[in-house]
Amino acid sequence: MPRNAAIVGGGHADWGKRAATWKDLAQEAGKATFDDVDGLGPDDVEGLFLGAVQPERFAFQSHVAPLAAELLGVDVTKMIARTELACASGQAALRYAWLAIAAGQLDVALVLGVEKMNLGDDYVAETQASMTNVLDREFDGVNGLNAPSFFSMFAQRHMHEYGTTREQLAKVSVKNKNHAANNPYAQFQQEVDVDDVLDSYPIAPPLCLLDCSGITDGAAGLLLVSEEKARELTDTAAYVTGSGQSCMAANSINNLPSFSAWPQATQAAEEAYDQAGIEDPVKELDVAEIHDCFSISEIIEYEDLGWVEKGEGGQFIEDGRSELDGDIAVNPRGGLLGCGHPLGATGVSQALEVYKQFTGEVESARQVPDSPETGLIHNLSGSGSVHSVMTLARDPQ
Amino acid sequence: MTDTHDQADARPDGGEPSEDADESARRTISIPDSIELPRLLDFYDLQDADHTRIHEFYDRLREGSLSTTQCEDCGELHFPPRVVCPECTSDDLDYVSLPHEGTLFAFSTVRGSGPLGMTDDVPFVTGVVELDGVDLRLSARIDGAEYDDLAIGDPVELEVVDIDGPTDQHRVFYRFRPRGETA
């Protein structure tokens, strides 16, 4: 019988262009995590799971999970691993920690995500080269397309096939960046309006600069514990109720079947909904942190996570259904568009946000109303060939 | 060394410079200004038989022909070329020629910062080309046109390019350009 596992707290380093090393960021997130949880310290941690995508290139450092263990004074007694699944690496770390606890292997896991991406203004090409190579370097990376250019083709095709409008894309950025304006660790804390988005530099048309998440230094941590341990520590936890993943046999652009849909998001979501007993996600989910690496991504996800019919994602944002007081409050954290996207840290941060929404500890301007009790996190990775979905709830089933 | 000794050595110094602050007496150690890598690390593979088992793809491309592998057992057409069929795991694969003409399925432009080695190319166009007559879509650079001059469905044709780079090996790759536009 699998055991329940729950998030009982966590914390962040400040995100942005940081005058700090990979190791500095790991230490800041670790401290913030242990400071947040009364009753658990480094000596209690039995397993350490660390999401990190490219420390070998960005920080010239490998074997990073044991390095983090040293930095945080954690003597790991049960299980340690670094996870690399591009933009979903943080959620992958959390998923493995959950599985280890569910399987009875350990009771207390530290889940971290750390990424150092800004190497200085003169070295952006290094970061772009590394990002390009999450696809097939020999046949995709060689063509030089960066993330905005890749996702702009999804915007182009979605507009072409379904009539999604430029303004609908902008509304996603406006919503999420305005949430981030009230998030003290976010990279981008300025409110914007639709005209600001449309007037920003058309960096990869139809996408403009404000349709894009950032290149971000950041780290996040959380403690995931068994239900028994959680009940000793707190009355309010975020229990993992479902977790699904799907990856098509097509990482290269050369083999993607669609540039307007992510069928793997649907499969991963259905898997998680099924485990969580969710039949009508729009009615049953109160808060969702989904992968808005670009404004178009969030619109496609409304559709492929099963919230609206295919092609109606643009209408979903236009009708305000993803606002804080809408059908599902989407990205109250500020999303990747507002918080930035330190690759390995994002999934950890999203899950922590759902927990903080449950406990009511977030800034009031971005608190989801009426005491949210159910949530979801979603990440895509690489070419969108992989999708990861996890559902969370205040009460385990 | 005992713990007691450690603690005595590490007493706070109040931020004062230590006793050996004379920098002129310090030794300098040297590291090279640049480090030569033992193997080429650019976007293009080394394309000969000593380095890759899909060298026939590059040999044919060097001769001006785009090709790929097809599975002799199940008939699956691959791209990129493989050494094992992902459909049936057979390694009995044959090279077949591909059409050089197609249409633009999607396209974009890189205007911000390009990857290493491509920053001087910015702005450039990349896209996805639906090849005529086969069920393949290729990721490729689109040369010979500005982003604003292109539309979904535009006819394009393949161009083989030589790569002038940090190796004596004659490397090649492919790009597409609007049909009828010569370089």
Report on this model:
The complex is a heterodimer of chains A (397) and B (183). By secondary structure, chain A is α/β, with parallel strands linked by helices. Chain A has 15 helices and 10 strands. Chain B contains 2 helices and 7 strands. In chain B, the strands form 2 sheets. Chain B has a 5-stranded antiparallel sheet. A two-stranded antiparallel sheet of chain B has the order 1-2. In chain B, 23% of the residues are buried. At the A-B interface, helix 5 and helix 6 of A face strand 3, strand 4 and strand 5 of B.
Brief summary of the model shown:
With 397 residues, chain A is α/β, with parallel strands linked by helices.
Question: What's the topology here?
Answer:
The complex is a heterodimer of chains A (397) and B (183).
Chain A lengths: L4 E8 L9 H15 L10 E5 L3 H4 L5 H8 L7 E5 L5 H14 L5 E8 L8 H9 L14 H16 L3 H15 L13 H6 L18 E9 H7 L4 E10 L15 H14 L4 H4 L2 E3 L5 H10 L8 H6 L10 E2 L4 H5 L6 H14 L14 E8 L4 E8 L4
Parallel strand pairs in A: 2-3, 2-4, 7-8, 7-9
Antiparallel strand pairs in A: 1-5, 1-6, 4-5, 6-10, 9-10
Helix pairs in contact in A: 4-15, 7-12
Chain B lengths: L2 H7 L45 H8 L4 E5 L21 E5 L3 E10 L13 E8 L5 E6 L12 E9 L7 E8 L5
